[in-house]
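Researcher: Here's a chain I'd like modeled. Treat it as a single chain, no partners, no ligands.
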Amino acid sequence: MGRGHKQIEGQISFDFCLDTRNYVCQANTLVGGKQALKLNSAKLIRAAIMQVVKGDEELKPYIISIRDLAELLGVPASNIYRDIENITDDIISNPVYIREERAGKTIRFIKIPWVTRCEYSSDIGIAIELNDKLKPFLLNLKEHYTQYTLQEVLVMKSVYAIRIFEMIQSKIMSKILPKDGISIEVPVQEIRECCDCEDKYPAFGNFKDKVIDKAVSEINRVTMYSVNYSYIKEKRNVIGIIFHVNMCYHG
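Model: Modeled as a single isolated chain. Structure tokens:
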């Protein structure tokens, strides 16, 4: 991919590839985990995952400058200089929780830190190295994985949109949808877990407004999908969402 590299504390680190048309590929078990990253932290992690390419046997350390990160995120560099410590702290302090299932039921979550290194240095930029414990979820994926171009999530303005977009993608089995689209059923509890909303917005109406509606609006605005949804109810309680998904190309 023609990348430069630098020596940092005796370790070779590679420059970020900045071509956002490249794919972010993750095992569905990683997509379906509990995640609590804020918006820019989530985007930086996905940019780091995009660096993993077919044939990689290891997760490599990377460097990205403040200016390049600002360009990726579409914000002024001054904002990144102001926020970079919060972003790196967020990534380090909020691991992903991988769902372990038995007979279709979640029995526990396994906590895995995203990174072994994520720090800013004024002379080199941001050094980031994904955790080797994530290798089964990022390297040599043959089946049960989700992929999308980085540019699709970089333009999103809500981390809930990123997470629900990934959940929908993980359940779509073909690149081209049938003419009438498809319907995807997701339990409300699973959406809450994936969006770090188990305890936020306890009233469903508030959760719908703040999370589901915001996500669906963003997905419809910036992706190839047209999404609406209906409910699965048990008595008066909404226990699941049926996402109705079709192709919608933006001209």
